[in-house]
Design brief:
The complex is a heterodimer. By secondary structure, chain A is mainly alpha-helical. The longest helix of chain A is centred in the last third of the chain and has 33 residues. In chain A, about 55% of the residues are buried. Chain B is about 80% helix and about 0% strand. Chain B is rod-shaped, with a radius of gyration of 17 Å. The chains are: A mainly alpha, B mainly alpha.
Chain lengths: ~575, ~40
């Protein structure tokens, strides 16, 4: 580890901390429909959309109506993206004349982007046309990111409201999240990426002659616009197969920092939104404090693991020291432009959030580095998390934390003045168990079937880690790949698609149910037995709950994969 | 034919999710009718 690495990490942390309050306040005002500096420009557009769609923005929905509308919206989005991929050969903006995408791969990709996962079993620049990238994948990145935000905001409304049967209007919420938040930030970010050298063109690939006289086809396209929403929405699906390790997606260390900032922006800001909407900023800061502590632990472990030399190479006499002439440490799978510190930071950011963009290959990380990446996702991505999913995920753990505290003193638990009773706890457990059930269930099936083992790039412990990582990434709606696993087979395309559906929608439905339950309740005044949820005691309890639940659930699987692999380094 | 199979799988998955919404609603309605819990 170097001081320069820590300075870079400190600067990134300062950048994120600086925006929590202003960005959180902006999101709160935009989602409430308050007037802001973009209203003169965007309010007429918003009203036009409602008029065209026949939406009455004053008409609110109960949680069942809200959830069914959201599911229907995603179903239609998946069908549309599937159809675009299957018909791309006959549609415009296909300069490379790509054939239709295979049915199982098209379904996997459609589910992947509509569920905010962005798992990619395909190589973007070799498989899909510009039209599919723009009108299919990029559009779903916007909409799935907006969907996460609206679910989180609906849950916060549940805490804020009392005696109400409604939690908002899903069409209004989706429109506002997209129009006032995602679109403006993406326009700015895309311009910044173009400034840094990211292509933005509708042209086809460029044919070049190499210095050796050979020919090379260099893919380009509308990359910058897709890059911006790929990061901001927590989607993470790249234009190129190498994702942000590709110099056209992430040309400079500065673009790398901007990418990480965009990945954390909405997830971190929503804790500020939470504090603002519930009328106590400390509530939001407490949640962010827990997220930050868990993030820091993961970062220190990953950075420390990657900065150390590989002991097996040391035994062969390979010089892995950090000197002015070489980065040192475990540089396998990492970009020389970014080095160990930024690769470790990016790796922690992208797995702690639900983004899944990568600028280094996790398959080549040390076992402990791979462990951190996998564990971050297994914790339901509550370490800042994706847009919305991080906030509603940590609030689910918060409900468990106050429930456990209530059991300790024999009192009905409360969170922000709302009694947490049997129905809320049941829904919370359904949401929290869906992801582990999908990860462990599908991974177990894949390790037992020839179709699952056929995709492996490595045998033994590392092969198991590849399978475990794939289903963890899918069910946690992250989308990053460990690499090494050939997942473009009917078996993996369909089972990973199913894991994504479970990990996204079987979680969202109970969250909306909890929102409806809480909104209908009366607020009870805080008493002597009320656990304050904005202080250090609650933060410790919440962090402990996340770690214990995650640890108890996944430790046996991790022991068979990255932990065993780490121990094997020291025979 | 494969397209029909894929879309049928997708429709089945979302039908199951719609059933899950109904089940959650039924479960919570039953709990709500059961009382308010301890003071």
């Amino acid at each position: 580890m170097t001081w320069q690495g820590w300075v870079q990490i400190a600067l990134f942390a300062a950048l994120v901390l600086a925006v929590i309050r202003p960005a959180g306040d902006y999101i709160a005002s935009a989602m409430q429909g308050d007037r802001n500096f973009l209203s003169p420009l965007l309010r007429p557009v918003e009203r036009l959309f409602y008029r065209l769609a026949g939406v009455d923005e004053t008409q609110e929905q109960g949680w069942v109506s809200y959830a069914v509308a959201l599911l229907l919206f995603h179903f239609l989005g998946i069908v549309l993206l599937y159809a675009l991929q299957r018909a791309q050969a006959w549609l415009p903006l296909n300069p490379q004349k790509f054939d239709p995408v295979a049915p199982d791969l098209a379904l996997n990709t459609a589910v992947s982007f509509a569920s905010n996962t962005s798992w990619q079993s395909y190589a973007g620049e070799q498989t899909v046309s510009h039209l599919v990238q723009m009108a299919g994948i990029t559009v779903q990145s916007f909409l799935s990111g907006a969907a996460g935000i609206v679910v989180a905001v609906a849950l916060v409304r549940g805490f804020v409201r009392h005696g109400r049967k409604t939690i908002g209007n899903v069409w209004v919420d989706l429109t506002r999240a997209t129009l006032y938040l995602l679109l403006p930030v993406c326009v700015l970010a895309a311009v910044c990426f173009v400034w840094q050298g990211v292509p933005q063109t509708l042209s086809g690939p460029v044919a070049a002659t190499t210095l050796e006289g050979g020919s090379q086809v260099i893919a380009i396209g509308p990359v910058a616009s897709q890059e911006a929403i790929k990061l901001l929405s927590g989607d993470g699906g790249g234009f190129f197969n190498a994702n942000s390790a590709h110099p056209f997606e992430n040309p400079t260390p500065l673009s790398g920092v901007l990418q990480m900032f965009l990945i954390f922006l909405v997830g971190a800001a929503l804790t500020g939104t939470f504090g603002r909407l519930v009328g106590d900023r400390k509530q939001g800061y407490a949640l962010f404090g827990v997220m930050a502590a868990l993030f820091l632990v993961g970062l220190v472990v990953m950075y420390g693991a990657e900065a150390r030399p590989n002991p097996l190479l040391s035994a062969l006499g390979v010089d892995q020291a950090t000197t002015p002439l070489q980065a040192g440490g475990n540089m396998e799978g990492k970009e020389l432009r970014f080095g160990v510190a930024q690769s470790a930071l990016y790796g922690t950011v992208t797995t702690a959030s639900s983004d899944g963009a990568v600028e280094a290959m996790f398959d080549s990380f040390s076992p402990l580095g791979g462990l951190v990446a996998t564990a971050n996702m297994m914790l339901d991505e509550v370490v800042v998390g994706g847009p919305g999913s991080g906030l509603f995920g940590i609030l689910l753990f918060g409900i468990v934390a106050v429930f456990v505290a209530g059991l300790m003193i024999g009192r009905t638990p409360e969170y922000l003045g709302k009694k947490i009773e049997a129905a809320e706890v049941k829904m919370t457990m359904l949401a929290l168990l869906a992801v582990p059930a999908a990860i462990l269930g599908f991974a177990a099936v894949a390790t037992m079937l020839p179709a699952g083992l056929a995709g492996l790039g490595n045998d033994g412990i590392h092969g198991f880690s590849e399978i475990l990582y794939a289903y963890t990434s899918a069910a946690a709606t992250n989308g990053s790949a460990f690499a090494g696993l050939n997942a473009n087979t009917p078996f993996y395309n369909l089972t990973l698609g199913a894991a994504m559906l479970v990990g996204r929608f079987v979680v969202i439905v109970p969250v909306l149910c909890i929102a409806g339950l809480l909104a209908a309740k009366r607020r009870v005044p805080a008493g002597a037995g009320t656990l304050p949820t904005n202080g250090a005691l609650f933060m410790g309890l919440l962090g402990g709950t996340v770690v214990v639940v995650g640890g108890l659930t996944f430790f046996p699987a991790l022991a068979l994969g990255p932990i065993a692999e780490h121990l094997a380094l020291f025979p | 034919m494969f397209d029909a199979l894929m879309l049928a799988l997708l429709a089945g998955a979302f039908a199951a999710l719609a059933g899950f919404v109904w089940a959650c609603e039924a479960l919570t309605r039953r709990d709500a009718a059961g009382g308010e819990g301890r003071p």
